[in-house]
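agent> Task received from the user: take the single chain below, predict its 3D structure, and emit structure tokens. No templates, no multimer pairing.
agent> Plan: (1) validate residues, (2) run structure prediction, (3) serialize to tokens, (4) report one or two observations.
agent> Step 1 OK, no nonstandard residues flagged.
tool_call: predict_structure(input=
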Amino acid sequence: MIKRGIAHIGVFFLYLLSLLPLPLLFFFARLLYYLLYYVIGYRKKVVRQNLTHSFPEKSVTEIKAIEKKFFLYLAELIFEIIKMTSISKAETLKRVKFTGLEQLEVHFKAGESVLACTGHYGNWELGTLALGLSISAKTMVIFKPIKNKIFETWFDCMRTRYGNIFIAMRQTLRGMAAYKNEPTLLCFASDQSPTREETKYFVDFLHQPTAALLGVEKIAKSTKRPIYYFKVNVVKKGYYHIEVLPMCLEPAKMDEFEITDLHFKFLENIIKEQPQYWLWSHKRWKFKPE
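)
tool_result: status=success, residues=290
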């Protein structure tokens, strides 16, 4: 009961904090960066290990430079997500610009649904919020629920405040069935980690065998929906440009695992351009092939 009360207070505090202008929140983010990196050392070992294994060609000095940039961006990202609690439609669309959405509208006008792929790169949360305001079809996002139900409710309210529909990963087929008679955009953050029991395939990603979820590939092949990759570019602090790139327009013609290999290769190329914007603190390589 006490924990629940503390959580409610925390959610209310986050809402109040979100009312502050982003430049002020970025000042707090700088303070949080020093706290996370120099004082607490939050998952520093995980980040260092992930970066070292992913970029074996880079020196220790180069790895540390990326590491510091990542922790600074992580702190900024935390406050950007908090800001989403109260951000207006106008500011959302000012901060996230798209190119290539007209490709999706061709499918929607023909009554066709589309699959969207991206990774945990840049502010994927703000990008999804802006996407729902920018296309004619319903935006449906597949997500992994978090354990704390109060904060999950806070996240859900924040993510769906402009009409997006969030579907728990295990309810994907049921969610698709509910909107089978209208065009939709079904979005996947395809770099999420499966459990060992769920793992059926390992992809070569950033010089490491990486357990891959096969949901995008399975749904694309069974429904023949085209797949587009959403490439997130960080323009400057708090501003993003997202390119909609055709990845696989005829999934039924692809070989087994070819689609999975393809979307991991898209993400890998993006990460190599500016590695500090991917979520390196995630324990992505928890296990290897037997």
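agent> Step 4: summary for the user.
The CA atoms of residues 129 and 249 lie 25 Å apart.
agent> Done.
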